Structure to design on (75 residues):
């Protein structure tokens, strides 16, 4: 899969969930850290995710014609 866009903001966390004795369930931010592995090195996701293809102009995000033309140049 190829990701397009700009580097994400990062800062996500694991979501934990539990329930009370009465059956009410809820979710909350967990204490675990999400990590990715790149070239054998672990990175936490607080750094954000860098896309495979960076789109520098936000106007390209929603302009299908410009986006298709740009993607054709990458082949």
């Amino acid at each position: 899969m190829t990701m397009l866009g700009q580097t994400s903001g990062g800062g996500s966390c694991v979501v934990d969930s539990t329930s009370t004795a009465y059956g009410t369930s809820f979710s909350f931010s967990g204490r675990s850290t999400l990590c990715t592995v790149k070239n054998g090195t672990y990175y936490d996701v607080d750094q954000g995710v860098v896309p495979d293809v960076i789109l520098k102009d936000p106007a390209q995000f929603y302009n299908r014609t410009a986006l298709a033309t740009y993607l054709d140049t990458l082949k």
